[in-house]
Amino acid sequence: RDKRTAKSLVVGRPILLALEDIDGSPSFLEKALRFLEKFGTKVEGILRQSADVEEVDRRVQEYEQGKTEFGSDEDAHVVGDCVKHVLRELPSSPVPASCCTALLEAYKIDRKEARISAMCSAIFETFPEPNRRLLQRILKMMHTISSHSNENRMTPSAVAACMAPLLLRPLLAGECELEDDFDATGDNSAQLLAAANAANNAQAIIATLLEEYENIFDDENLQRCSISADSRVENSGSEDSSDDENPDMKDNGYHDAENEASPDTDEDPSRVLSGKLSESSGYAGSDLYD
User: Model-level pTM?
Assistant: First the structure.
């Protein structure tokens, strides 16, 4: 199984390729999420009721062997556990430790309006873009499921209890507890309390994100996030560009003079190199034009 996982088209993929393949087509995970949104909303206990492990492994293997679409007649519980399996096998947590801490700090705020605002800021300001997209996509599926709780018996809290341990791994691993939380280095009872506290916090955070999904992931926030991401890319590009650092380079004639130099020049290569170095240092009187 380890060898198959190492070469798998489904499990162990990096966060960047969790939702789509290199060619831009939807991944196994994305297709499974779409299936649950379409066929899983009326299935009682969806995401809570476990499927047979062998059936989950078999469905993953079938996908890798060419059965790359989910049919309407498939067992929703198997597909739901496929989603969990993929998330569990991601090489890194969907929500990194620093982002878990930011969410936890925001969740601890007493006043609801301030708490939701802080959680929103934590997501859009501290998350790497691939992680934010993945979290939002998983939450979208969970929100769709919980919005049909009258039929499937899965409230936001129930859905959160099933999925929070997979999404907020570092929180449950004790990697981002706040100073006033239980001391996980104490005796067994203290560690049990810390673990229970972390699990409760994780469930509550995800449940809150589900309940406030439409407010947090509204068009305004997504647009702001898109603009922020674009500006980061532009800033990164300008930092790497020597032309941007020296906007007057082309105006002072150095580059033009270099371009006008005859390609058949008999100058000694070392002297040409020296001339170019002199130009880049700002000395116009280089021996390139002696």
Answer: 0.75
